[in-house]
Automatic annotation (TrEMBL):
InterPro entries with a match to the protein in the record: 4Fe4S_Fe-S-bd (IPR017896), 4Fe4S_Fe_S_CS (IPR017900), RnfB_subfamily (IPR050294)
4Fe-4S ferredoxin-type domain span: 1-25, 42-74
Record flagged with keyword Heme: no
TM annotation in the entry: none
Name this protein carries in UniProt: 4Fe-4S ferredoxin-type domain-containing protein
Keywords (A to Z) from UniProt: 4Fe-4S, Iron, Iron-sulfur, Metal-binding, Repeat
Domain of life: Bacteria
Gene Ontology MF term list: 4 iron, 4 sulfur cluster binding; metal ion binding
Keyword Phosphoprotein: no
Any matching Pfam family: Fer4_7
Amino acid sequence: MQSRCIGCKTCAIACPYGAMNVVAFPVKQEGPSPLFKLNTVKAQALKCDLCNNRAEGPACVEVCPTSAIRVIEPTDMDQLMKQKRQQAATEALSTVTS
């Protein structure tokens, strides 16, 4: 949630693709009187949007030399998770009956 970002940059450090950016922008705040205004700086993360405006899709998917990254639709992800659960259950049952 963007509004909760405190600008700590841990997301930028953790992102293995360098897709996170933390930017600072000025924020004017009203002080106790109209003559007193505070000019402060707020840092906020610019998060990866999967290259939403890019016709070719996410750049990281395009440039990955081993095709390890891919975009998966939610329905495909559900099916993949179901298959993995079934495979794990089958393997667990085969070790119990052996």
